[in-house]
């Protein structure tokens, strides 16, 4: 009996193959050639080096689970989803062929690119490009193979951190193009002339896209009449026009360190629509009365107007003057009076929000100081000053007013929402707080009033560890088409409309407010549009983080930081180390376990508690301030490794 082409043997093989266990997971590679198939955060299977040659780090695969030398191993069988699809990388030319190295940690091998004479002539070693993976070994191809799509930058271009990051996240790197027709006023409605009022703007000294101007009067009973005028780009951009579609796609002006890519053409955002001083501009205006107890009255108006800002003021100058420092003084007595009244309103609203809503923490913000060639000269730590708070309180009033106006008249818009905790996380918060002798119940903190009370208690307690653990359980903020609460602000509803030059969601709310004013049928935004805006917001934030990480690694490579001791705040505990923030400049660093304690068996990283135990004794926790020195600044992965200074 021959075994060749034996149907019984073939069937037996099929049966054995069918009985072999299969697992699904994500490939995690290592620098030593082997890898692991991670099926969940707690479980992984060894992939030998010979099997790793078939897959890439991050691939989602199905693997056969086998036993070799008394050890479970994963043998890749089927590709579900490749980690690489469209990707960014650096070029290498060799023997008249092009190769590309994906710009991701754990990728150490160049991928062959198709030979194209145009690319061969244009590209040099170290240049950056976008490619698409078109062949994968687990699909039966004998090599990994990529197709070049776009050249990003030459290797010596100082804008590489920005251009590469924007390419990574599929974000635009230039302002939109426009035509003469885009610069023509298209709405010719009757507008109330407010050009005689002493409107002022307060922004950063270099701000060009000025979208809000304010005017204030004190009324007889001790309250205030606040008039907020907002730039009106929708008077120039018709709904559904080419420029409107571009603005929707972009979603936001993308503010990166040292660079911004506007949502609208700069000629619109920084000139024609910008509320520049002494220029007559169309505006959408909210006028609202604030009672002497700080409550926003029901007396709210929205209308179209012409305004003329009388002065462009800066946060630092106004803050200096209020704090009686520096040499700057208001240019006129009337502007001085505006600043004084706005300051009074700000203090009144801060007291009101402290009692009735949620106050913001005055956290440090960090700003890169760059040369004209993109070199980081320094990183400056900045606090929100009183002038920032003046504008913030005025805009909060305006946005609360818009939310109420939309809800009352049409019942929809783009609302900013935050729902505090879901039920499971609320239970976790209550349980955690009890351990610290703070007694709350689940039903209480899931209401807006109860959540605000919890935040006030935490503010008074001023314990950064407890604060960080509670925040870990909070939901993320989002958008909603229908009215909803914003727990993190302590507001029953909130809808921004004060930055239409910079945010498409505010453009939508502008059009809805105008439809009410003009008694027209409003166009309700769709869930699809809402989700597009949310996704674009997420990508912009990731791009800002990635550029910052890149600039930090370039900055901290300087030899003056080699032996420097930094104070750092622990911001997270991971499975194998600590993430911390350098307080001097805001850089994020990672401290591996080996640099915390020499014996890995004696150290426990408790991610849930945010604590580190050594020999069962708690030594470090989230929010602790520790001293560190830099161990390795890795430009290729834009990461910074530090070690504890003992």
TrEMBL record:
Domain RNB: 191-519
Broad class of enzyme this protein falls into: hydrolase
Catalytic activity annotation: Exonucleolytic cleavage in the 3'- to 5'-direction to yield nucleoside 5'-phosphates
Pfam families found in the cross-reference section: OB_RNB, RNB
Main location: cytoplasm
Keyword Nuclease among UniProt keywords: yes
InterPro entries: CSD, NA-bd_OB-fold, RNase_B_OB_dom, RNase_II, RNase_II/R, RNase_II/R_CS, RNase_II/RNase_R, RNR_Ribonuclease
Gene encoding the protein: rnb
Family: Belongs to the RNR ribonuclease family. RNase II subfamily.
UniProt xrefs under PANTHER family: EXORIBONUCLEASE 2, RIBONUCLEASE
HAMAP family (alphabetical): RNase_II
E.C. code: 3.1.13.1
Family matches, as SMART domains: CSP (SM00357), RNB (SM00955)
One GO cellular component, as annotated: cytosol
Nuclease is among the record's keywords: yes
Name of the protein this chain belongs to: Exoribonuclease 2
GO biological process: mRNA catabolic process
Organism of derivation: Buchnera aphidicola (Pentalonia nigronervosa)
Ranges for domain Cold-shock: 24-80
Function (record text): Involved in mRNA degradation. Hydrolyzes single-stranded polyribonucleotides processively in the 3' to 5' direction.
Alphabetized UniProt keyword annotations: Cytoplasm, Exonuclease, Hydrolase, Nuclease, RNA-binding
Xref: PROSITE patterns: RIBONUCLEASE_II
GO molecular function, one term: RNA binding
Compartments where located: Cytoplasm
């Amino acid at each position: 009996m021959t075994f060749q082409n034996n149907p019984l043997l073939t069937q037996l093989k099929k049966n054995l193959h069918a009985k072999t266990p299969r697992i699904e997971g994500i490939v995690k590679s290592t620098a030593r050639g082997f890898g692991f198939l991670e099926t969940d955060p707690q479980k992984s299977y060894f992939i030998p080096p010979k099997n790793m040659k078939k897959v890439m780090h991050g691939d989602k695969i199905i693997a056969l689970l086998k036993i070799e030398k008394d050890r479970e191993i994963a043998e890749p069988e089927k590709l579900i989803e490749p980690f690489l699809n469209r990707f960014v990388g650096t070029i290498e030319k060799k023997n008249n062929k092009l190769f590309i190295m994906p710009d991701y940690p754990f990728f150490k091998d160049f991928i062959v690119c198709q030979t194209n004479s145009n690319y061969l002539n244009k590209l040099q070693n170290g240049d950056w490009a976008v490619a698409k993976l078109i062949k994968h070994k687990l699909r039966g191809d004998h090599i990994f193979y990529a197709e070049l799509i776009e050249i990003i930058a030459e290797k010596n271009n100082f804008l590489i951190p920005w251009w590469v990051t924007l390419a990574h996240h599929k974000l635009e790197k230039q302002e939109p193009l426009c035509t003469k027709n885009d610069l023509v006023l298209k709405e010719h409605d009757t507008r109330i002339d407010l050009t005689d009022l002493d409107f002022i703007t307060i922004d950063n000294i270099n701000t060009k896209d000025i979208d809000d101007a304010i005017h204030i009067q004190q009324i007889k009973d001790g309250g205030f009449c606040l008039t907020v005028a907002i730039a009106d780009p929708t008077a120039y951009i018709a709904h559904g026009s080419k420029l409107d579609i571009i603005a929707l796609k972009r979603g936001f002006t993308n503010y990166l360190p040292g660079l911004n890519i506007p949502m609208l053409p700069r000629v619109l955002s920084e000139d024609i629509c910008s509320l520049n001083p002494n220029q007559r501009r169309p505006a959408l205006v909210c006028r609202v009365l604030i009672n002497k107890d700080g409550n926003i009255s029901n007396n709210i108006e929205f209308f179209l107007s012409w305004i003329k800002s009388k002065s462009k003021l800066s946060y630092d100058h106004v803050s200096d003057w209020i704090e009686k420092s520096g040499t700057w003084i208001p240019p006129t007595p009337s502007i001085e009076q505006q600043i004084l009244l706005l300051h009074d309103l700000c203090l009144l609203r801060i007291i009101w929000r402290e009692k009735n809503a949620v106050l913001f923490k005055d956290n440090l913000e960090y700003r890169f100081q760059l040369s004209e060639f993109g070199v980081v000269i320094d990183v400056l730590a900045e606090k929100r000053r009183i002038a920032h708070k003046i504008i913030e309180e005025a805009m909060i009033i305006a946005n609360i007013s818009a939310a109420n106006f939309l809800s009352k008249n049409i019942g929809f818009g783009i609302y900013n929402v935050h729902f505090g905790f879901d039920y499971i996380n609320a239970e976790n918060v209550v349980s955690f707080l009890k351990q610290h002798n703070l007694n709350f119940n689940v039903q209480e903190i899931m209401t807006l009033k109860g959540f605000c009370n919890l935040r006030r208690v935490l503010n008074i307690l001023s314990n950064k560890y407890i604060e960080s653990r509670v925040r870990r359980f909070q939901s993320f903020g989002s958008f909603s088409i229908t009215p909803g609460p914003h727990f993190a602000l302590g507001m029953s509803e909130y809808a921004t409309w004060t930055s239409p030059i910079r945010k498409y969601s505010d453009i939508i709310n502008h059009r809805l407010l105008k439809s009410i004013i003009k008694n027209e049928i409003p166009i309700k935004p769709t869930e699809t549009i809402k989700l597009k805006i949310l996704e674009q917001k997420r990508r912009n934030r990731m791009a800002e983080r990635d550029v910052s990480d890149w600039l930090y690694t370039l900055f901290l490579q300087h030899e003056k930081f080699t032996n420097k001791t930094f104070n750092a705040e622990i911001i997270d505990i991971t499975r194998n180390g600590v993430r911390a923030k350098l307080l001097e400049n805001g850089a994020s660093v990672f401290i591996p376990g080996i640099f915390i304690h020499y014996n890995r068996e004696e150290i426990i990283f408790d991610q849930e508690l945010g604590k580190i135990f050594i020999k069962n004794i708690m030594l470090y926790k989230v929010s602790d301030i520790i001293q560190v020195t830099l161990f390795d600044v890795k430009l290729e992965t834009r990461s910074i490794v530090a070690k504890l200074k003992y």
